[in-house]
Specification:
single chain; alpha+beta; five-stranded mixed sheet; four-stranded antiparallel sheet; 20% helix; globular
Length: 126
């Protein structure tokens, strides 16, 4: 089942227009599997479940720390507590991690993008 999200206009920025069935759509563009989502770029993220994530999974986010204040963590179908090690890996770089289910992370990403906030998302595909 694919869930549609009402798109918001944000010139030059990625907006999630739908997600589900193991993929994400950004208008006419799509990405299969889990992803790292930045303001203008989408990268594959090799994690199919949150239990496979460790602090090394955020290396690309940390490399872009100058562009990111908030990392939304879409944990799949349901939210779980964030491991202290993840917070500790991101905090020295000025990045706050916000956990939620993947659907909520997609919607929140869109809102923050429309506000031109410095946001990224690590999203487990659902």
């Amino acid at each position: 089942m694919t869930l549609d999200i009402t798109p918001m206009v944000a010139s030059g920025r990625k907006i999630v227009t739908s997600y589900g069935d193991g993929l994400f759509r950004f208008g006419m563009e799509k990405a299969e599997g889990s992803i790292l989502l930045f303001s203008t770029e989408v990268l594959a993220w090799p994690h199919t479940e949150i239990d496979s994530v460790d602090e090394n999974a955020f290396a690309e986010v940390i490399a872009r720390a100058g562009e990111i204040d908030i990392l939304l963590l879409g944990m799949g179908a349901r939210m779980q507590p964030v491991k202290t090690a993840w917070r500790n890996a991101l905090r020295p770089h000025g990045i706050v991690i916000e956990p939620m289910d993947t659907g909520a992370a997609c919607r929140t990403f869109n809102v923050l993008q429309s506000e031109e906030r410095r946001v990224a998302a690590a999203l487990i595909a659902v």
